[in-house]
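Q:
Got a chain?
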Amino acid sequence: MNKNEVKKDLYKSKEVAEFSRYVAGNMYYQVKVGFDVYEFPIPTVETIKLGDDREFVVDYKTGDVALSSDLGTTTFYKDMKGSDLNRWIGKAIDNDEFNIVEVVVAPI
């Protein structure tokens, strides 16, 4: 399924995405598209490149963290309309991070 098909399906079906877990700076949501359940990450922090080719998310000396500018003022809930998360679903598809977690058999 391509990005546009996924977005169309979510607008039509009004499926609800459900928060799954938070790991290593990413919120993970699951949503049903067609007959399958997919999972995708929403990054909450940005990796900062240091001058010496190292990267960090949190500066443990100062406690500074670079929150993702992509979040803006979005409020995230446990359950949300899948179409409200299309911005991050599209990015997950582009980054090959929109993965099937459950294959549901179509009714006969």
